[in-house]
């Protein structure tokens, strides 16, 4: 990552961080994910000297409670719901019209997936997540079939994927990359010689990496080599912590 130091010379970084798989290891059940005290302190330090946002597929209240730092910005539900210090906030109004469809999809998924051991349905305000990390390999196709069937019966939703997870979300042009750009514009950071850095591990983070290809830095946290739009890669959550501490020391 020595090349990264050169790119930051005479520029102020703006830090965007995914949560699961980036600040905390992926766990079997999402409610069990916990950020370590060392990682929280690294985020807190960096947030005191740089503008910093946590961008997550989790609901806003959930990810804010997990991180537990009031002085940074949060974009929950892939950016549908954004909040920050001093009452800063924004909720994408278009998302609200899809709540009835999400309610219906949730109930159908709960009913059908209750028959498949290990499948977990997680309702978020603007999405329904289907976790199949604990599902036997021979039953994954059955989970996929249920999700696709519910999607076909749902108006205005789309299916996205991640690490052993499907999500049904509103079928509108909004994602982590759009949320990143919205924050940069709203906070007028692009006018101050800032360089946005986004660190994430999942397929949904590719939307943010795409937005930063021209003027920004994408960093993938990966367990194995895969195609990505990120320019750099880290191998683990531990390496994320090391980088955040180095950046905090550099810019404090």
Q: What does this protein structure show overall?
A:
With 252 residues, this protein is an alpha/beta fold. The protein folds into two domains: 169 residues, 3-Layer(aba) Sandwich (Rossmann fold); 76 residues, Alpha-Beta Plaits, CATH 3.30.70. 35% of the residues lie in helices and 23% in strands. The chain is built from eight helices and twelve strands. The strands form two sheets. The chain has an eight-stranded mixed β-sheet, sandwiched between helices. Strands 6-7-9-8 form a four-stranded antiparallel β-sheet, with helices on one face. Helix 2 packs parallel to helix 8 and helix 4 runs antiparallel to helix 5.
Please summarize what this structure is.
The protein is of the alpha/beta class and 252 residues long.
Number of domains: 2
Provide the succession of SSEs: HEHEHEEEHEEHEEHEHEEH
Which bin fits the share of residues in helices? 25-40%
What is the overall silhouette?
A: globular
Cross-sheet strand order for the largest sheet:
5-4-3-2-1-10-11-12
CATH fold annotation of the largest domain: Rossmann fold
Q: What is the class of the largest domain in the CATH system?
A: Alpha Beta
Name the beta content range: 15-25%
Q: Which stretches are low in confidence, meaning pLDDT under 50 for 5 or more residues running?
A: none
Number of strands: 12
Class by SSE composition: alpha/beta
Query: Compute the gyration radius: what is it?
Result: 18 Å
Mean pLDDT: 94
How far the N terminus sits from the C terminus, by CA atoms, comes to 19 Å
